[in-house]
Amino acid sequence: MNYRWNWGIVITEPYLGWLVSGLTWTLLVAGAAFCIAMLMGVFVGIMRTLPSRTARMVGATYVEIFRNIPLLLQLFLWYFVLPEVVPDSVGRFLKRDMPMPEYWTAVVGLGLFSASRIGEQVRAGIEAVGRGQAMATAASGLSRFQSYRYVLIPLAARNILPPMTSEFLSLIKNSSLALTIGVLELTGQSRQIESITFQGIEAFTAATAIYSSLTLIVVALMRRVEIAVAIPGTVGHG
């Protein structure tokens, strides 16, 4: 094997700076997308538990569409197809006038895709609370909005923290697909280092180590949150 190892390449400039920049963009994409996913996911999850059949159908339709279309295809649709099918003025804004169109397209695409999965988790969390809680809120004179705000959603949030952690980790990993539409996040920067230096093993190993460290930090933080908000006696501290 004639491969020339050079591990020092990942800690020298400009390549170290590229990796730091890639990590920054990964966090920016994943963080903003998670905010969209949470807002939309909670809304969809609530719709799927309402008595209204129309609301449940709308929520289910959203989930089935966005969950069953591959994420990469969704990003391509948002970035390449949408600007061509909307009015010309809107298309020009999306392609040219909007600041950082690649970034915002990735954020929206990832956010709406993840919202379909979070919506199902929220639905399951609310249903796990039990009908008794909903009946108790009604008997207490709370409106439906108040029952969701003060009782059902807070209780459901405790139930869905572990799968929500997994969803955020998946979103961090899925953010690597943003490179296909021009976002130089961590994977994109690693590929750029590989294409210039031909030290692909070192570049991708460094990216792997950064991804692993990032996910371990997220798991540790979310574990602390889970313990902090848990009902005493329901979560182990091991």
TrEMBL record:
Residues 23-222 form the ABC transmembrane type-1 domain. It is found in: Cell inner membrane; Cell membrane. PROSITE patterns: ABC_TM1 (PS50928). It comes from the Bacteria. It holds the Pfam family BPD_transp_1. Keywords: Cell membrane, Membrane, Transmembrane, Transmembrane helix, Transport. Belongs to the binding-protein-dependent transport system permease family. HisMQ subfamily. PANTHER family: GLUTAMATE_ASPARTATE IMPORT PERMEASE PROTEIN GLTJ, MEMBRANE COMPONENT OF AMINO ACID ABC TRANSPORTER. This is Glutamate/aspartate transport system permease protein.
